[in-house]
Amino acid sequence: MISLEGKRAIVTGGGAGIGRATATVLAELGARVVVADIDTEGGERTAKDTGSLFVRCDVSRREDCERTVATAQEEFGGVDILFNNAGVIRRSTVCEITEDDWDLVMAVNIKSVMLMSRLVIPGMVAAGGGSIINTGSGWGIQGGGRAVSYCASKGAVVNMTRAMAIDHGPDGIRVNCVCPGDTATGMLADEARQLGESAAAFYEEAADRPLGRIGQPRDIAQTVAFLASDAAAFISGAVIPVDGAGTA
Hints:
Rossmann fold
């Protein structure tokens, strides 16, 4: 029921998980996509499978973000859709976390949203509008145990989304946030490893929510595609849990 034909998109963290699924769905709906990821192998695989372009990008580095946006501008003529999805998690309390891990989480989860957004917004303004979607988390809405840096970063993304929607709405730019619950990605498996738990047990516990399962990457990708489309033309500043009623 929606089309992204002719739209030009950037997906950060597109080499795996939610990013890969979103690049796939956007391409299926007609968008041209730049896949940005620090993982060259995963990013190139996604690009090949979706007919997209890959740019190796450490989203915490301004120079890499500039190169990514420049590629979209040179190859596609601009950017209509930005999905700020790259993320990292370190499971620890405020007493346990190292300064290096804290800085890494903040750089990848928050700083990257600022860097990528401010690079695409001028072009969106000149084109009359655009759509930016940020990946928050259920833990950006409510707290969680042994995840202090992740909760802090995703809470910032949630409120940053609202602030951006206010600032750039007059320019026709919509800014929204999807907040996935536990989703079957490599990141979720890595969380189990960090906590010293088996992936199977961790997944079973994560499925304890009203819909009775964990999310699949495509569940979130389809929500992102909707928010990127004209079907969501009057939706901005929204924070949308995609979590099987987990936060409810």
